[in-house]
Amino acid sequence: MSLRVLGIDPGLTRCGVGIVDVDARRRGRLVHVDVLRTPPDLAIERRLLAIGEGIAALLDEHRPDRVALERVFAQHNVRSVMGVAQISGVAMHESARRGLAVALHTPSEVKAAVTGYGSADKAQVASMVARILGLTEAPRPADAADALAIALCNAWGGGGASVVSAEGGTPAQRAWRAAEKSAGARRLAP
Amino acid sequence: MSLRVLGIDPGLTRCGVGIVDVDARRRGRLVHVDVLRTPPDLAIERRLLAIGEGIAALLDEHRPDRVALERVFAQHNVRSVMGVAQISGVAMHESARRGLAVALHTPSEVKAAVTGYGSADKAQVASMVARILGLTEAPRPADAADALAIALCNAWGGGGASVVSAEGGTPAQRAWRAAEKSAGARRLAP
Q1: pLDDT at residue A166, rounded to an integer
Q2: Is it true that domain A2-182 has CATH number 3.30.420.10?
Q3: Which of A4, A18, B2, B129 could link B21 by a cystine bridge, Cβ 3.0 to 4.6 Å?
Q4: Is A70 known to be catalytic?
């Protein structure tokens, strides 16, 4: 028995999509990873349509149990944040149309879940994602690795800390810590 | 021959939707107006689904030629702006799925188009919308009137000033100015 999660790193220019299966022992397996792209000179509604259709096709083909997105914040670039929020709206809508629940995770939750460190950089996240899923190299570009990290974060029940406290010291958790250690994930003081 | 436009004032709690027919003489006729609502305690993806289905039903029933939305800016309330952007994304996606073009208009463009004054208040906008469409009273709530104003702004070709310069002094334009005048639309110094 395993849980299948679609993780989405929303964006108009590059939208990372990653699907993982996670079993009862918390082991992850890569099902699919891709980056959906649209050209900046296309009309906004056409860009939303293209990415929306891409997400709909993944939902119908791979039938995930849950969908997880990176939570959007209003950051420096307002224009880009609006595009991210619009894509998120479309992704949530397509998921809800299929009866799927959607979870939102903050970037620091996702980083903490896969690297043990909420301020990990993109290379650390990509490296840990590759290790967890047994890939020979890190998924590229970063949006692809981020989407898989979002899916893993969700499958494991959110932020790393809450997972540990909720599930206690299982064999999977020990295996996970060993993987973290061997990956040399840097743990810096907060 | 007339142009049918669906105007949308996007929001998660209240989403104004208004459809107008505008003829070659720029006269407007009300086709449909409503406010789609979702409760704040519903999951975000369910709220997006409910409003998205409402918009899809309007598109299929009334078959507008174009769709116009209020352009979203990152304002004070970041949380509400994200909801507005998500709804906008869903509305644009549903429109593009049906091959429709989507236009975005700023609040001041919309106000200028219907009242001649880009900083008009909500009561002035609602009053002018009622007069233009020959309604006995102003559409309520404000979101409904705003949606109709967005549709009229779009049907007339955007902001009031650009319409005047593009089309010159037509009979419709004179009729329009007379309507504005008799409505007592206040024109304040900018």
Answers
A1: 32
A2: yes
A3: B2
A4: yes
Known binding residue B70? Answer is yes
Active site residue A9: yes
**Which is nearest to A164 in space by CA: A120, A129, A102, A116?**
A116
Which residues, other chains included, contact A43 with Cβ-Cβ below 8 Å and sequence gap of 6+? B101, B102
Q: Can you name the residues that pair with B6 across neighbouring β-strands?
A: B19, B67
A-B Cβ pairs (cutoff 8 Å, strict): 84
Beta strands in A50-99 (DSSP E): 66-70
How do the domains of chain A map onto residue ranges? 2-182
Do the chains contact at B96 and A49, CB–CB below 8 Å? yes
Write the DSSP symbol of residue B72. P
Smallest Cα distance from A170 to chain B, Å: 32
Binding region of A for Mg(2+): 9, 70, 143
pLDDT tens, B73-104? 766 566 678 889 999 999 999 999 999 999 99
B21, B94, B143, B180: the active-site residue: B143
B120-148 per-position pLDDT tens digit: 999 999 999 999 999 999 998 999 999 99
